[in-house]
Amino acid sequence: MTMQTLALYNLKGGVGKTAAAVNMACLAAASGLHTLLFDLDAQGAASWYLEAEETAAKARKLIDGSTPVGRLVQPTAFERLSLIPADFSFRSLDVLMKKADRPRQVLSRLLKPFSEQYQLVVLDCPPTISHLAEAIFEASDLILVPVVPTHLSVRALEQLREYFRSKNLDETKLKPFYSMVDRRRHLHNELLDHPPPAMAGACRTSIPYSSMVERMGEYRAPLATYAPGLHVANLAYDALWKEAQRSLKRLQQPD
Ligand SMILES: Nc1ncnc2c1ncn2[C@@H]1O[C@H](COP(=O)(O)OP(=O)(O)OP(=O)(O)O)[C@@H](O)[C@H]1O
Ligand SMILES: [Mg+2]
Predict the structure, then answer these.
(1) What is the sign of the dihedral through the CA atoms of 236, 238, 239 and 241?
(2) 141: which DSSP letter?
(3) Does any ligand 1 atom lie closer than 6 A to the CB of residue 134?
(4) Per-residue exposure over 12-45, b if at least 16 CB sit within 10 Å of its own CB, e if not
(5) Which run of H or E residues covers position 135?
(6) pLDDT of residue 219
(7) What is the whole-number distance in angstroms between the Cα of residue 49 and the centre of ligand 2?
(8) Cβ–ligand 1 contact at 123 (below 6 Å)
(9) Average pLDDT over residues 31-45
(10) 203: closest CA among 142, 133, 150, 126?
(11) What is the pLDDT of residues 56-98, one digit of tens each?
(12) Which of the listed residues 9, 17, 226 should we mutate to test ligand 1's pocket, taking the one with most ligand atoms within 8 A of CB?
């Protein structure tokens, strides 16, 4: 099986990218896949949840090749799950990629050495749309976009789709899903029951708003380690991962 790359991406901040990236990477590893989570966000939230050791990873050295990316990989407490933690210098990844040779290819090139070792790479992305984002779009087989059911979030998704079209990028890679869904809210119900055109091809699974997810910060651990197996949020991430896995399989074997 060849390595596949799954990104959790949205230009909008605070929509549940990191929560999904960490939980799905853990579920993937638990299901038997050798998984690498790459924390591309200088905030380092995913790295923090997974209790990463501090590294001297400098974005500039990573991009110019003087630090081999393999040297940055750390094991985690979870079998088959490795991590490339973020460093605060990752905030300059965007500018560095702009200056690099063939900016769109930079991330694909960085990930290439892992193809023998890992079956899945999960990218936790910062909320940005520029050179780093384009490199992410290029390197990813599937881009899951968490969308909070509000008009502004749907508009952000429309803007993302327009960006893809204007740059001639492969829009079929985009797969939105509703995130932080609160069924007590009228607008959430409205948008879930009548999805707008931008949600075409969306995941059937949505992630509920749940204080159990927020508590990842308290436990500093993925949901599955502390939440009851049958908790709605646990079940939702599991279903989302299975949907993503099916999409990745389809992408791998077209027709
Ligand atoms: N399903 C959920 N229910 C309740 N709270 C959630 C849920 N998902 C995420 N959160 C909380 O919302 C906040 C933002 O989530 P998260 O960090 O996953 O978003 P993000 O899109 O990665 O943000 P950023 O753009 O800053 O990287 C966190 O405090 C997290 O605990
Ligand atoms: Mg995040």
Answers:
(1) positive
(2) S
(3) no
(4) beebbbbbbbbbbbbbbbbeebbbbbbbbbbbbb
(5) helix 131-139
(6) 96
(7) 11
(8) no
(9) 97
(10) 142
(11) 789 999 999 999 999 999 999 999 999 999 999 999 999 999 9
(12) 17
User: What's the rounded Cα separation, in Å, for the pair 146 and 31?
Assistant: 23
The CA-based dihedral angle spanning residues 121, 122, 128, 134, taken in that order and rounded to the nearest 10 degrees: 30
Distance between CA atoms of 147 and 137, rounded to whole angstroms? 17
Give the closest residue (by CA) to ligand 1 atom 8. 16
Q: Is the pLDDT of residue 255 over 70?
A: no
| Digit-coded pLDDT (tens) for 167-209 | 999 999 999 999 999 999 999 999 999 999 999 999 999 999 9
The pLDDT assigned to 55 comes to: 82
Q: Which domains does the chain have, with CATH numbers?
A: 4-252 (3.40.50.300)
Q: At what angle do helices 232-252 and 17-30 cross, to 10 degrees?
A: 70
The H-or-E segment that residue 160 falls in is: helix 151-166
CA distance 179 to 150: 10
The amino acid present at 160, given as its one-letter code, is: L
Q: How far is ligand 2, taken at its centre, from the CA of residue 253, in Å? A: 31
Query: Shortest CA distance to 9 belongs to which of 93, 149, 130, 112?
Result: 130
Query: Which of 12, 15, 184 is the pocket-test mutation for ligand 1 (most atoms within 8 Å of CB)?
Result: 15
Distance from the Cα of residue 104 to its chain's centroid: 18
Nearest CA to ligand 1 atom 25: 13
Q: Looking up tokens 């949505």, which residue turns up?
A: 206
Query: Is the per-residue pLDDT at 115 higher than 80?
Result: yes
